[in-house]
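Thread: "does anyone have the structure for this chain?"

Original post by V.I.:
We have the sequence but no experimental structure in hand. Need at least a predicted one for the grant figures.
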Amino acid sequence: MIGKKNIVFGFLYLVATASLGPYMIINTVGDIDQAYRDKQPPVQRLQDLRTNEYEEDLEPVKTDTIAKANLDGILAMNNIMNLQNPQGFMRSVHAHGNLESVLNILAGLALCFIGVAKAFKQVISYLFIAGAIFHSGMLYLAAFGQDWAFTPLLAGPWLVLASLLLIGIAALMDFRSEVVKDD
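Reply from O.Q.:
Generated one for you, tokens below.
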């Protein structure tokens, strides 16, 4: 049964991706919470300056003081945006990993009912696994700071698309109502 390896891989990969997702998110939430707390004083200072028509102690505030307060507020907001972007990236990695796990399970089940040549089914099976590894697998490595993983990542989406196309063609050629024995 050629699709068995995809089903096994899909479930094991789903366990890995399902456990890594929360781990990644939990490790960044604290930093974001702290960034929001750190943002409040400089932004409050800007709000106070604006409310008081740029006066403190009944004296006009110098432009360099306003510029410095403005810079502090901008940097505090920028810190939040920088922390949120990787978290959004991690959520995307987690979603892709889960999707490609389920995709492998479904492909494995579909391969059990497709009666094309064994070699063609093997190619489809291995393409699905390679697509997951070179797409979401490399995204996970990149999310954990392995920048080299962006290079093989480029092949991943193409492998997934090729495997989807090939399984569609194989199903069109010979999809059966009972499990096919691959001898």
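V.I.: this helps a lot. The beta strands are 55-56, 59-60.
O.Q.: and The CA atoms of residues 11 and 110 lie 15 Å apart.
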